[in-house]
TrEMBL record, chain A:
<dbReference type="InterPro" id="IPR015889">
    <property type="entry name" value="Intradiol_dOase_core"/>
</dbReference>
<dbReference type="InterPro" id="IPR024756">
    <property type="entry name" value="PCDO_beta_N"/>
</dbReference>
<dbReference type="InterPro" id="IPR012785">
    <property type="entry name" value="Protocat_dOase_b"/>
</dbReference>
<comment type="similarity">
    <text>Belongs to the intradiol ring-cleavage dioxygenase family.</text>
</comment>
<dbReference type="Pfam" id="PF00775">
    <property type="entry name" value="Dioxygenase_C"/>
</dbReference>
<feature type="domain" description="Intradiol ring-cleavage dioxygenases">
    <location>
        <begin position="75"/>
        <end position="103"/>
    </location>
</feature>
<dbReference type="InterPro" id="IPR050770">
    <property type="entry name" value="Intradiol_RC_Dioxygenase"/>
</dbReference>
<dbReference type="InterPro" id="IPR000627">
    <property type="entry name" value="Intradiol_dOase_C"/>
</dbReference>
<dbReference type="GO" id="GO:0019619">
    <property type="term" value="P:3,4-dihydroxybenzoate catabolic process"/>
</dbReference>
UniProtKB/TrEMBL annotation, chain B:
<dbReference type="Pfam" id="PF00775">
    <property type="entry name" value="Dioxygenase_C"/>
</dbReference>
<dbReference type="GO" id="GO:0008199">
    <property type="term" value="F:ferric iron binding"/>
</dbReference>
<protein>
    <submittedName>
        <fullName>Protocatechuate 3,4-dioxygenase subunit alpha</fullName>
        <ecNumber>1.13.11.3</ecNumber>
    </submittedName>
</protein>
<comment type="similarity">
    <text>Belongs to the intradiol ring-cleavage dioxygenase family.</text>
</comment>
<dbReference type="InterPro" id="IPR015889">
    <property type="entry name" value="Intradiol_dOase_core"/>
</dbReference>
<dbReference type="InterPro" id="IPR000627">
    <property type="entry name" value="Intradiol_dOase_C"/>
</dbReference>
<feature type="domain" description="Intradiol ring-cleavage dioxygenases">
    <location>
        <begin position="48"/>
        <end position="76"/>
    </location>
</feature>
<keyword id="KW-0223">Dioxygenase</keyword>
<dbReference type="InterPro" id="IPR012786">
    <property type="entry name" value="Protocat_dOase_a"/>
</dbReference>
Length: 233, 196
């Protein structure tokens, strides 16, 4: 292969062990990760059959008989690598709480209403230039047991594949100016302030649909690849 | 030229199941299953199964695993693999969530040999990514097969300390095309995870 993904890019990610996030304490490896050279196995990546993505899978407000309750929003953005190249045909999957902050999941039993018209899952494929778009409902904040009065800032989970197995990314999109940011150990597990800011969407008035939906823009930047072979370590 | 920094990883959380591995349990269609098999796939069919444990040895019920592998001839279903075309019916990707006791399983085929960057053969292997609550970034590991003589010369296993290699090698059950590999996220028997 002529492309190498530099491991330096990984510095933006949280460390596996972030003690403030209590669930990480028994699940983070104790031993150092072992460096290895990328082979074809790491440099290739899943190829999708488009039959798994159906028309309308990117609109979470039309999956049921009625309309979900809450603030309708458009979420869109550009999937690109850190060298600025758009990533076309990349599968983007999302899942989220409803507008009351409750997930459709047997283990989420906190006393907020479930919405019969909202599952909170969607998927799409980025277009030829790397752009994606969803219609959904703004998720609510919800409590969790991490610490006293712990509430997650409103967020949407995103799963993105990119070009190879080593560009695989699962992240969370947050909303601008959330008062819960300073108190959330997951958001703050990213040590660098500028990197943290890259997980916050921007309010996009320009693409807001009049009298229908507000709009947020969230660009997703995956690892870039150097054009010349280089030693990985 | 670097135009912007990458988006940091965040945990998949405990509630990914209805979004990523619904398996008919939620009002949402499946994009992937725990099987790579298609009716006309060629190669030796195998089942890989095991359990996932945390640092206290407690089963982890909310981990999601993804595998990616070559076909039986060692070719990937990706245009970046410029060698001979892969088996058209085989994509090589599957996804599985653990159950309440931490069990996972994959139905797939034994992959062929894939070259390393120097052209040396790697022993048959599957790459595996581990996502879960408490894991802020997914972990990368590999699955090898206990009945492959090529393991002894595999260039990736060679960089793993000898006393930890067994954590990557799925053990074949006697007389069955079934391999077992437990994953331990932490502790003395911790699975080897790679910095890629």
């Amino acid at each position: 292969m002529t492309f190498i993904y530099p491991t330096d890019s990984n510095k933006a990610h949280p460390l596996p062990l972030s003690p403030e996030y209590k669930s990480s304490i028994k699940r983070a490896p104790n031993k150092p990760l072992i460096p290895m050279r990328h082979t074809l196995s790491e440099l290739t990546g899943p190829v999708y059959g488009h039959e798994t993505v159906r028309d309308g899978d990117n609109d979470l407000t039309t999956q049921h008989k009625g309309e979900p309750i809450g603030e309708r929003i458009i979420v869109h953005g550009h999937v690109r690598d850190e060298d600025g190249r758009g990533v076309p045909n990349s599968l983007v999957e999302i899942w989220q709480a409803n507008s009351c902050g409750r997930y459709v999941h047997v283990r989420d039993q906190h006393p907020a209403p479930l919405d019969p018209n909202f599952t909170g899952a969607g998927r799409t494929v980025s277009d030829a230039a790397g752009y994606y778009r969803f219609v959904t409902i703004k998720p609510g904040a919800y409590p969790w047991g991490n610490h006293h009065n712990a509430w997650r800032p409103a967020h949407i989970h995103l799963s993105v594949f990119g070009y190879s197995f080593v560009t695989r990314l699962v992240t969370q999109m947050y909303f601008p100016n959330d008062p819960l940011f300073p108190f959330d150990p997951i958001f703050n597990s990213v040590p660098d302030e500028k990197a943290r800011a890259r997980m916050v969407s921007s309010f996009d008035l320009e693409n807001t649909k009049p009298e229908w939906a507000l709009c947020y823009r969230f660009d997703i930047v995956l690892r870039g690849k150097n054009a010349t072979p280089m030693e990985n370590h | 030229m670097k135009s912007s920094g990458i988006t940091p990883s965040q945990t998949v959380g405990p509630f990914f199941k209805y979004g990523l591995t619904p398996n008919g349990e939620y009002a949402w269609n499946d994009a992937f299953t725990n099987s790579t098999l298609t009716p006309d796939v060629t190669g030796d069919r195998v089942r890989i199964e095991g359990r996932v444990f945390d640092g206290d040895g407690v089963a982890v019920p909310d981990v999601m695993l993804e595998i990616w592998q070559a076909d039986a001839q060692g070719r990937f279903a990706d245009p970046q693999d410029k060698r001979a075309l892969p088996n058209a019916s085989f994509r090589g990707f599957a996804r599985c969530g653990t159950d309440k006791d931490g069990h996972y399983s994959f139905e797939t085929i034994k992959p062929g040999t894939v070259p390393d960057p120097d052209g040396k053969p790697q022993a048959p292997h599957i790459v595996l990514a581990v996502f879960g609550r408490g894991m802020l970034r997914h972990l990368y590991t590999r699955i090898y097969f206990s009945d492959e003589a090529g393991n002894a010369a595999d260039p990736v296993l060679a960089v793993v300390p000898a006393d930890r290699r067994a954590t990557l090698i799925a053990t074949r059950e006697a007389g069955k095309p079934v391999y077992r590999l437990d994953l331990r996220l932490q502790g003395d028997e911790e699975t080897v995870f790679f910095d890629v």
